[in-house]
Design brief:
Elements (H helix, E strand, L loop, with lengths): L2 H12 L3 H7 L4 H8 L7 H11 L3 H9 L2 H4 L7 H23 L2
Pfam families: HTH_3
Keywords: DNA-binding
Protein name: HTH cro/C1-type domain-containing protein
Protein backbone atom coordinates (compact mmCIF):
# COMPACT_ATOMS: atom_id res chain seq x y z
CA UNK A 1 0.00 0.00 0.00
CA UNK A 2 1.19 3.50 -0.79
CA UNK A 3 2.00 5.56 2.30
CA UNK A 4 0.09 8.50 0.81
CA UNK A 5 -3.12 6.49 0.57
CA UNK A 6 -2.57 5.31 4.13
CA UNK A 7 -2.19 8.90 5.35
CA UNK A 8 -5.37 9.88 3.52
CA UNK A 9 -7.30 6.91 4.94
CA UNK A 10 -6.14 7.63 8.50
CA UNK A 11 -7.03 11.32 8.15
CA UNK A 12 -10.52 10.51 6.90
CA UNK A 13 -11.06 7.97 9.69
CA UNK A 14 -10.07 10.62 12.23
CA UNK A 15 -12.42 13.11 10.54
CA UNK A 16 -9.91 15.94 10.20
CA UNK A 17 -8.91 18.18 7.33
CA UNK A 18 -5.58 18.21 5.52
CA UNK A 19 -4.94 21.63 7.03
CA UNK A 20 -5.46 20.33 10.58
CA UNK A 21 -2.95 17.52 10.04
CA UNK A 22 -0.50 19.88 8.32
CA UNK A 23 -0.64 22.28 11.25
CA UNK A 24 -0.12 19.43 13.71
CA UNK A 25 3.04 18.22 11.95
CA UNK A 26 4.18 21.80 11.32
CA UNK A 27 4.11 21.84 7.50
CA UNK A 28 2.07 23.74 4.94
CA UNK A 29 -1.16 22.27 3.63
CA UNK A 30 0.46 21.91 0.20
CA UNK A 31 3.30 19.88 1.71
CA UNK A 32 0.84 17.60 3.47
CA UNK A 33 -1.25 17.19 0.29
CA UNK A 34 1.94 16.05 -1.45
CA UNK A 35 2.53 13.50 1.31
CA UNK A 36 -0.97 12.13 0.73
CA UNK A 37 -0.07 11.84 -2.94
CA UNK A 38 2.96 9.76 -1.97
CA UNK A 39 5.36 12.54 -2.86
CA UNK A 40 7.41 14.93 -0.82
CA UNK A 41 9.76 14.54 2.09
CA UNK A 42 8.58 12.06 4.69
CA UNK A 43 11.21 12.36 7.41
CA UNK A 44 11.58 10.14 10.43
CA UNK A 45 10.38 12.94 12.72
CA UNK A 46 7.22 13.34 10.59
CA UNK A 47 6.66 9.58 10.68
CA UNK A 48 6.86 9.62 14.48
CA UNK A 49 4.61 12.68 14.77
CA UNK A 50 2.03 11.18 12.40
CA UNK A 51 2.05 7.85 14.23
CA UNK A 52 1.42 9.67 17.52
CA UNK A 53 -1.26 11.90 15.97
CA UNK A 54 -3.17 8.98 14.47
CA UNK A 55 -2.48 6.81 17.52
CA UNK A 56 -0.99 3.98 15.49
CA UNK A 57 2.09 1.94 16.23
CA UNK A 58 5.22 3.29 14.55
CA UNK A 59 5.79 -0.20 13.12
CA UNK A 60 2.57 0.25 11.14
CA UNK A 61 4.08 3.21 9.29
CA UNK A 62 7.50 1.61 8.99
CA UNK A 63 6.08 -1.49 7.33
CA UNK A 64 4.06 0.58 4.87
CA UNK A 65 7.07 2.75 4.06
CA UNK A 66 9.36 -0.21 3.54
CA UNK A 67 6.82 -1.69 1.12
CA UNK A 68 6.26 1.53 -0.85
CA UNK A 69 7.65 1.75 -4.37
CA UNK A 70 9.21 5.17 -3.71
CA UNK A 71 11.43 3.58 -1.08
CA UNK A 72 12.46 0.57 -3.12
CA UNK A 73 13.96 2.50 -6.02
CA UNK A 74 17.23 3.49 -4.35
CA UNK A 75 19.29 4.93 -7.17
CA UNK A 76 21.84 7.50 -5.98
CA UNK A 77 20.23 10.27 -8.04
CA UNK A 78 16.62 9.41 -7.19
CA UNK A 79 14.87 9.35 -3.82
CA UNK A 80 18.13 9.42 -1.88
CA UNK A 81 16.54 10.76 1.29
CA UNK A 82 13.82 8.11 1.10
CA UNK A 83 16.51 5.46 0.71
CA UNK A 84 18.37 6.81 3.72
CA UNK A 85 15.18 6.62 5.79
CA UNK A 86 14.45 3.12 4.49
CA UNK A 87 17.93 1.96 5.46
CA UNK A 88 17.65 3.56 8.89
CA UNK A 89 14.24 1.95 9.48
CA UNK A 90 15.55 -1.44 8.41
CA UNK A 91 18.40 -1.09 10.92
CA UNK A 92 15.93 -0.14 13.66
CA UNK A 93 13.74 -3.16 12.86
CA UNK A 94 16.79 -5.44 12.98
CA UNK A 95 17.78 -4.05 16.38
CA UNK A 96 14.22 -4.51 17.67
CA UNK A 97 14.26 -8.08 16.36
CA UNK A 98 17.61 -8.74 18.06
CA UNK A 99 16.33 -7.32 21.36
CA UNK A 100 13.21 -9.48 21.14
CA UNK A 101 15.37 -12.57 20.57
CA UNK A 102 17.56 -11.75 23.59
CA UNK A 103 14.48 -11.26 25.80
CA UNK A 104 12.90 -14.62 24.89
Amino acid sequence: MNYGRTLQRLRKLKGVSQLEVAEHINVSRTTYVNLEKGMGELTLSKIITLAEYYKVNINYFINIILNTDNYTDCLPTKNQEFCDIKNMLEEILLKIHDLNEVNK
